[in-house]
Amino acid sequence: MKLTFLGAGDGFSVGQGHNSALLEFGGTNLCIDFPESNHAALHKLGLELNRVENVFVTHLHEDHINGLQKLAFYHGVYPLKGKPRLFVHEELLGDLWDALRHGLAYSTRGPKELSDFFEVVPVQEAFELEGQRFELVRTVHIPGMISFGLLCAPYFYFSGDTRFDLGQIEEAAAKAKVLFYECHMQPYNLPSHTSLDELLTLPEELQRRTVLMHYLDDYLDAEKREAFHNAHALRLAELLQAYEF
Ligand SMILES: O=c1ccn([C@@H]2O[C@H](COP(=O)(O)O)[C@@H](O)[C@H]2O)c(=O)[nH]1
């Protein structure tokens, strides 16, 4: 199992892509979220969009899904192995189509639906791919909004967007080696994301296993990164950085 960051930045990042990861395992691949910035990142890895076989959607903020229209069209124009599979929690499916249909529903060959572009897999609690189980973990991001993290035991937990949730972190840490956890890194608190101060309350053993993502572009600066890594056990994810499990 290999996880490569296709983007480690927040919703406003211009330098490190929006937060997304590519998993490669068992002869297939799975992207966690699909922002537009994935196109350039995958290209740098030598993978064109028609090589993407599976996508999991954590939630419907545009910086997590705004590459899906291009992915859908690319697979249609340059077909390779068939439509990509789209794993989406069943409660998000209707709203996902509402977000995408303005671009996808119309075509020169008549009206289209989401299932014309993707093999849609509505998910409840978990899904399985090439023998690997992926468990959906509900996160607390924005009140009223449905959002998920993804547990891929025994390897990693990928938080998606969430507020700090100690219970969720402890549960995930008991099942997975590495925690990829969002951290906004703003010098003040945000109501919908996790702050560095909150993550620094974790026991050092947990901090050593935690990699921060979805953070602001200020931390692209080499000196700032080095100072951060010298001062903390927590690590910063990096665009195109790979983790082997
Ligand atoms: O530092 C930040 C702050 C926010 N975002 C994204 O903006 C929207 C709205 O966030 P609110 O905190 O609810 O105002 C949401 O998509 C956040 O993920 C961000 O990327 N970075």
From TrEMBL:
Pfam families: Anti-Pycsar_Apyc1. It catalyses: 3',5'-cyclic UMP + H2O = UMP + H(+); 3',5'-cyclic CMP + H2O = CMP + H(+). InterPro entries: Metallo-B-lactamas, RibonucZ/Hydroxyglut_hydro. Residues 17-214 form the Metallo-beta-lactamase domain. Keywords: Zinc. Gene3D superfamilies: Ribonuclease Z/Hydroxyacylglutathione hydrolase-like. GO terms for molecular function: 3'-tRNA processing endoribonuclease activity; metal ion binding. SUPFAM superfamilies: Metallo-hydrolase/oxidoreductase. The keyword Zinc applies. It comes from the Bacteria. Counteracts the endogenous Pycsar antiviral defense system. Phosphodiesterase that enables metal-dependent hydrolysis of host cyclic nucleotide Pycsar defense signals such as cCMP and cUMP. This is Beta-lactamase domain-containing protein.
